Amino acid sequence: MSFTENETLVLDADVVVLGGGPAATWAAWSAASSGAKVVLADKGYCGTSGATASAGTGVWFVAPDPEKRAEAKASREALGGFLAEGDWQDRVLDQTYTNMHLLSEWGYPFSSDGGGKPQRGGLIGPHYMKLMRSIVKKAGVTILDHSPALELLVDEHGVGGVAGYQRQENRSYTVRAGAVVIATGGVAFLSNAVGTNVLTGDGALLAAEAGGVLSGMEFSNAYALSPLHSSSTRGAHYRYATFYHEDGSVVQGANMHARTPIAKALLKGQVYASFDQAPEEIQQHLRVSQVDFHTVFDRLGINPFKDKFPVTLRLEGTMRGTGGIQLTDFDCSTAVAGLYAAGDAATRELICGGFTGGGSHNSAWAMSSGTWAGAGAAGYATSLGDRARSRNLKGAGRAALRPTSSHNVEADEVIKGVQKEVFPYDKNYFRSEAVLTDSLDKLDRLWEHVQGEPNLKTRDIIKHRESVSLVANARWAYRSALHRTESRGMHKRIDRPDKDPSQQRRLLSGGLDEVWTEFDRNDPLPESFSTPIKEAIAV
Amino acid sequence: MIELVSETRCIECNLCVKVCPTNVFDKVDGGIPVIARGDDCQTCFMCEANCPVDALYVAPQPDRRVTVNEADLIATGLLGGFRENWGIGPGRIPNSARIDRNSLRRLQADLGGPG
User: Fold this and answer.
1) Is residue A404 part of a domain?
2) Backbone angles phi, psi at A379, to 5 degrees
3) Which residues of B touch A (CB under 8 A)?
4) Which residues in chain B have Cβ-Cβ distances shorter than 8 Å to A288?
5) Residue A54's closest chain B neighbor by CA?
6) Are A124 and A163 members of one domain?
7) In the Cβ-directed half-sphere of B9, how many Cα atoms lie within 13 Å?
């Protein structure tokens, strides 16, 4: 960016929402509908930003029939390592049901079931997010596109606004607000999984700098199957895939749910896939429902139902993983007063535990938690009244914004340094104490390094802050992975392959120079646990 | 990554500059937008989805540059493919209105098979 900087934009609001995807737009709509004056600030463009806009997603849409609901809740219980909570799941199922009906009313183009009723099992990204942008605008929200938040503004009472940069206007901005909603998505470490390169964990960094707490950061190693020379991470087709080694032999035991054999095979050589098990009738359906995936294959000149094409596993971090900012109540408030979180930026353990496969829970979580966070933030801002206007706020941002050392920092080198530790399957998919310790040593040194002066000639301040965020997120993830000395959900420790019943609870983390981790004392163990286990843990 | 801004098709509306989530394009006074930060392209096809005249082409490879030829892309029907397939543009039906999830689920149950 050039440094012929224009005059700072200063705005006042009741609620400022950070992010531009589903969670952010639902939060902004919800806050505005509660009567709040709302500003939405997105790093990219609200309507195209994030993992949803460029793809499509199933939705955890279940009719309010007690039997169906119970089945839906139970289906992922074991996969998630029994860390989800029934009351949160009930609330998400209810809210999602309501919101999907709202989308119908607002004109989302659902298909009909033949009897005139819309089929509400999924959403197509570009149509969904275009609609959400127009709904947010109609609700009177001020949208700032290309305006990433760089830091939170805080005082002794908590969060009272944000400061950021408008990259297409070449000017700084500040918004003073009674409450802030972080809905900036998860962290996918710039892995090129479609739509995720805006998801650099910025929200977790902002929260941690203000003293916030994270939860479940060990569940940050989701990898998605992807044709090698593409960004596409659509999953539905792999139900019909056969996986092959380079010599044409089948990768035994591999399927869309069992990725471990694929990850193991990829450590040794290239793996190929073909959707050669898809019956003709199914192929026709998939061509319509996964049209973006097929457009990519058209461009690659591949017929995926016949040809064998090279595949890879692309890191999707906490975007499809479940860790994020800890929520302290149903209104999506956090450990920091005035700070709310929603969508992938918040922990999704509450409904998924330590595992998510498809997007259906993620999209349901985004629209539900967004709706609650917006209303919660609006309520909090109202309770502050005029006091919100007279606060003495300071920027909470640190690395890259307020260097404490004079050496030169190159953002691109920092990003590569983090990726070298988090991408490899033999470090992050298959985890062990020795390898995690070695990676943490390197990541801790990177953290010291990013305290230097960002080189703004080669990279702008936004990129530098992103690189800082990646280091911070990787450190919380690996410190948590080291602390959880068992395998649970997507967290696989090859040196601790079994579940340890005493670790069936959430693991919290936070801190910047000193990263801390600790099991959540308020997360009670199930009644079924024997007294000796409970006593052992209480010590 | 983004490989083409067609000089013959572009009407200089600069929508791509506005909607690109990773800020890849720059507006040019009196000219068509330029790909100023191509390395930041995340291959999400959102610029194509929003281009009213199908002047943009994003190659599917996110990690390498490929050479494209506009005449070939037109001849093979690839230029504008995302808008056509998503059903974006005047007179088109959004693909979301054509997806029959219920039938797919029934078919999957009837045919059994893997997964």
Assistant:
1) no
2) -65, -40
3) 17-23, 40, 42-46, 49-50, 59-64, 78, 81-82, 85-86, 88, 93-104, 107-108, 111, 113-115
4) 95, 98-100
5) B44
6) yes
7) 16
Question: Where among A334, A363, A395 does a domain terminate?
Answer: A395
Confirm if A465 and A150 have CB atoms less than 8 A apart. Answer: yes
Note whether residue A177 is domain-resident.
Answer: yes
Q: For residue A200, list chain B residues with Cβ-Cβ distance below 8 A.
A: none
* A523 and A389, same domain (yes or no): no
Host H or E run for residue A214: strand A214-215
> Which residue range forms the structural domain that includes residue A120?
6-220+318-395
Residue of chain B whose alpha carbon sits nearest to that of A241: B114
Out of A300, A317, A334, pick the residue that ends a domain. A317
Query: Helix H segments across chain B?
Result: 15-19, 46-50, 70-75, 81-86, 101-111
Q: Do A54 and B45 touch (CB under 8 A)?
A: yes
Which pLDDT tens digits describe chain A residue by residue (539 residues)?
Answer: 444 578 999 999 999 999 999 999 999 999 999 999 999 999 999 999 999 999 888 999 999 999 999 999 998 888 899 999 999 999 999 999 999 999 999 999 999 988 888 999 999 999 999 999 999 999 999 999 999 999 999 999 999 999 999 999 999 999 999 999 999 999 999 999 999 999 999 999 999 999 999 999 999 999 999 999 999 998 889 999 999 999 999 999 998 888 999 999 999 999 999 999 999 999 988 888 888 999 999 999 999 999 999 999 999 999 989 999 999 999 999 999 999 999 999 999 999 999 986 679 999 999 999 999 999 999 999 999 888 788 999 999 999 999 999 999 999 999 999 999 999 999 999 999 999 999 999 999 999 999 999 999 988 999 999 999 999 999 999 999 999 999 999 999 999 999 999 999 999 999 999 999 999 988 766 555 555 555 554 43
Kindly report the nearest CA distance between residue B64 and chain A, in angstroms.
9
- Cβ contact, residue pair A288, B100, below 8 Å: yes
- Is there a contact between B49 and A109 if contact means CB atoms under 8 Å apart? no
3 state DSSP class of B25 = strand
Which of A197, A230, A257 is closest, CB to CB, to B42?
Answer: A197
CB nearest B111 (choices: A47, A194, A279): A279
Q: How much is the pTM?
A: 0.96
CATH T-level topology, domain B2-111: Alpha-Beta Plaits (3.30.70)
* Residue A510 forms part of a structural domain: yes
Which ipTM value was assigned to this complex?
0.96
Count of structural domains, chain A: 3
The DSSP string of A110-126 is PPB-SSS-B--SEEEHH
| Residue of chain B whose Cα is closest to the Cα of A257 | B115
Cβ separation A124–B111 shorter than 8 A: no
Q: Which two tokens stand for residue A139?
A: 């609700």
A126 lies in the same domain as A175: yes
CA distance B53 to chain A (A): 17
Q: Are A229 and B85 in contact (CB < 8 Å)?
A: no
Buried b (16+ CB within 10 A) or exposed e, A145-175: bbbbbbbbbbeeebbbbbbbbbbeeeebbbb
Residue A473 counted as domain residue: yes
Question: Do the Cβ atoms of B61 and A230 come within 8 Å?
Answer: yes
Q: Give the CA radius of gyration of chain A.
A: 23
